[in-house]
Design brief:
This protein has 160 residues and is of the alpha+beta class. Helices cover 28% and strands 35% of the residues. It has a single domain, classed as 3-Layer(aba) Sandwich (Aminopeptidase). The relative contact order is 0.16.
């Protein structure tokens, strides 16, 4: 596996993997994938990674700002997705570790995640990579008319 910086040319594969996550209804409240321009504008320009197995994009990770207020400039929300046929092979852990390193190199001190409690694989990945559970939001939003909860997780960088 090779982890490299995500480029706009990778968008078709990133979009495909994101749509696989959307289809599970356990990865995001989103019901459709945005166009590249909207996705690009909503994610930080650094800390965007893809995992390649041979030449196939196997997964991706990126960060979104949690707020446009300057006081939260060092805090970002994690997005991490692995292709449905490649889960459980360490791809997510490789992406997460690379993203953590990159986030710290870019001055971030806190990474956040809000995960559906049913997504136990993602929760375990976050815990293995140094995240801790900090809360639980009940009935925070609806997906297809069904109220969903989220587990809030956080990772604090030691150097800050």
């Amino acid at each position: 596996m090779n982890i490299i910086q995500m480029l706009p040319a990778h968008w078709p594969d990133v979009k495909r993997i994101y749509e696989e996550g959307i289809a599970t209804q356990n990865a995001t409240f989103e019901t459709s994938c945005p166009v590249w321009e909207k996705w690009n504008a909503s994610h930080l320009p650094h800390s965007r990674w893809i995992a390649l197995i041979d030449t196939k994009v196997a997964g991706w990770a990126a960060l979104s700002p949690v707020s446009d207020r300057c006081v939260y400039g060092g805090v970002a929300e994690v997005s991490i997705y692995v292709g449905s046929d490649l889960r459980g092979q360490g791809i997510g852990k490789g992406l997460m570790n690379r993203m953590i390193k990159s986030s710290e190199e870019n001055g971030l001190w806190t990474l956040n995640s809000a995960t559906f409690p049913e997504n136990t694989e993602s929760i375990m990945l976050h815990i293995k990579c140094g995240f801790r559970e900090i809360g639980y939001r009940e009935r925070i939003g609806q997906l297809d008319g069904i109220w969903r909860n989220t587990v809030l997780m956080e990772r604090r960088s030691l150097g800050f």
